[in-house]
Amino acid sequence: MAEEFDFHPMWESLGMNLADHDMLLGAVGQMYGDMFLTQNNRPKSTSYLDFVATNIHSGRIKEMLDKKEAGEATKIVGSFCVYVPEEIVLACDGIPVGLCSGADWATDKVEEHLPRNTCPLIKSFAGFKLGEVCPYIESSDLVVGENTCDGKKKAYEFFATQKNMYVMDIPNVHDESTLVTWKAEVKKLAAKIEEECGVTITPERLKAAIHAVNGKRRALQRLAATRAADPAPISGLDSLLTVQAAFMDDTPRLTGAINEMAAECEQRVEAGEGVAPKGTKRILYTGTPMAVPNWKLFNLIEKAGGVVVGEESCTGSRYYKDLVDESGETVDEMLDAIAERYFKINCAVFTPNHQRMKDIVQMAKDLHADGIVDVALQFCTLYEMESFAVEKAAEEAGIPFMHITTDYAGEDAGQLQTRIEAFLETI
Ligand code: SF4
Ligand code: SF4
């Protein structure tokens, strides 16, 4: 589709910088080819991921805009965090999209508004906007931010000067009183989305949305479970992309494709077929989310001879491990159930965050990981600070541990590769 159709008029109508955007697409396409298409023994059904990658800035955007024009969708709602409930957007016939922010762009312009020592993820979303190269940002009618880390909450003050924004207040402590506040916050968001989309949320609408998103999360759970096998049936790189795609692609299409991938991986497990040989060193990734096209670390681990078998991260298990209880009958009950489900996400913004440590150790055991690689994006105080607790939990569980601080640039790739190879040799 992307090759046959000229999408430039569409990008132009979104106010994008065509020359810079062509350059970005070229670079990402090259990276995708080098990292994903050079993998051996990929499951055949990963062709869906190639489809997603090919259409990410083109066919998918056209599809969303066409749906709006045809009156099949109301608004496009962007967000940056897995705390923003997509069920509410879907219940209003909106299209939820994750605003990925996984590459450096227009850094000079960004540093006119944000400090240089800001994490790359924040700089990236500001840079994609200032550089006019993200069709998801440009096509979003509303962007929902959230008060998680300090960097994000202050950066949203700047972003709100560029886009129609609404910011949710996320608690920093998990207890009964903050759950009450959080439930009220989810209801405030529902009212905002209703107003924005011009739709009243009915029990039928919300039930259908909860069911659809639960189906997507179940498919991802099913695929993730196959990765406990040795040999692992699918790579960490492809698995990471399934969750990244879940923030962007159409929910029913993605659910169907992930279920197909899971079915193929189940057959591969049965047949003892893997993406890497049996006995390959198995890594559990934990840490900051890896947004498209930040595939650097997974690529390094797997090219160094390891295989990533799980991700304790918002671009991993935190996105799909919990479902919304489907027993609610009224809108109020269902919104409460949504709030309860999202409240279980153990972001490093919470204090204390003991449950995250338990989840990491449990995942490492369930997936038979030989080691844990804990990653913080540069200048991310939360995940840097929490890495000490992760190391302690890994040590107590007797699991080899490695901490990495990195950014989106490729300059540290050689040094990281040496460190990762050394780590894989010791485990
Ligand atoms: S790490 Fe925290 S702030 Fe980032 S997406 Fe996850 S929950 Fe949101
Ligand atoms: S990586 Fe860290 S600093 Fe950056 S947005 Fe996420 S939580 Fe905030």
UniProtKB/TrEMBL annotation:
Domain of life: Bacteria
One GO molecular-function entry: hydro-lyase activity
NCBIfam families referenced in this protein's UniProt entry, alphabetically: double_cubane
Homology family: Belongs to the FldB/FldC dehydratase alpha/beta subunit family.
Protein name: 2-hydroxyacyl-CoA dehydratase
Taxonomic lineage of the native organism: Bacteria, Bacillati, Actinomycetota, Coriobacteriia, Coriobacteriales
